[in-house]
Amino acid sequence: MFGSNSAYASFSTDDLPAAWHFYKETLGLQVHPVGNNLNLTFPNGTHVMIYRKDGHVPASHTVLNIMVKDIDAAASRLREAGIQLEHVADSDDEGVSHSKRHGMPSIAWFKDPAGNWVSIVEVTEEDIA
Question: Which three-class secondary structure state does DSSP give residue 8?
């Protein structure tokens, strides 16, 4: 039905300047203003819009999954940047879950300045291409 259409994902924040700094300066992602919103652009063409919302409530689910080749190296870089990894079921002392239960890849979660859940997910070269 919509196979030839494009799409993008979005989520809210309560502070666009803080989101800009976090996603661009701290995480090193491509961030561009689009109107009164922010657009994250990934090398594979994926776009994610972040918009300011009065009365923002942090999402209780993961709003953004960032694919990485080496989860332990990426988790270390996050910690070096002052980002605290969330300790959830199956995560090790460093905050990384290497559990392959239910076919899950290695993954670690953290929160953005608005309290939204973000993850890094270890994938193979073929998955990233």
Answer: coil
Q: Does residue 86 sit in helix, strand or coil?
A: strand
What pairs with residue 84 in β-bridges? Answer: none
**How many beta carbons lie within 10 A of that of residue 29, not counting itself?**
15
What residue type is 92 in one-letter code?
D
CA geometry: angle 51, 57, 62, nearest 5 deg: 75
pLDDT at 27: 96
Are 119 and 64 within 8 A, CB to CB?
A: yes
What pLDDT does residue 125 have? 66
Distance CA(2)–CA(80), nearest Å, equals 42
Instruction: Map out the domains of the chain with their CATH numbers.
Output: 9-128 (3.10.180.10)
Task: Say whether pTM exceeds 0.85.
Answer: yes
Q: Which residues of the chain have pLDDT under 50?
A: none
Report angle CA 14, 33, 63 to the nearest 5 degrees.
Answer: 50
φ/ψ of 20, rounded to 5, equals -55, -50
Task: Name the 3-class secondary structure at 38.
Answer: strand
pLDDT of residue 126: 60
